[in-house]
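Team,

Forwarding the record for the chain on the shared tracking sheet. I've put the sequence and predicted structure together so nobody has to dig through attachments.
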Amino acid sequence: MIANNSLSTFHQWLLAEPSGSAPARTIILHGDSTVFSDRLIEEIATYLNEYDDDGAGRWLSAISDLVLQISGNPDLRQLLGMAEACQSCPPDGPCGLRKTLTALGQRGHVIFRASAPPAKVLELPEAFHAGVGNGLGPTRKCHLVLNPDLMDPGSMAHIIGDVFLEWHHRNHFRVAAAQKKA
């Protein structure tokens, strides 16, 4: 499935089998919006839809516009299992967007940009964090940081996708081995 960010693709993603009992597979991109665009999110999803056999073509590129549409629509929030928005927290405000990103991430097979500025940390402890920038600021605690000044922008999606797949598979086997010993 080619990455797409339409509401119909969101519905297809939502109807697909969830990630199962394993931790949800989520990639969060960090960096200034001047450094990378939503296109990188779409390119990573396209790459993973082609090369992640376990993902079965279910990767969703949750670009900013799609996240805003989901967050602002009570029916879509309900489909994600989100509670009603509270009066002090509008759905399209920082808190509402954080809740939407958390719900998307808990479902898995999704890539999105970290909320900026982060009102609170997203509740996704098993997420893979990739930074695009110089390794300072919000990218300093990422699993991977790519400096766009030192590489071809066309290869960044492939590098992030490959490193994520390696990280995920090694982490999966490490957890399985620990459970086997217990």
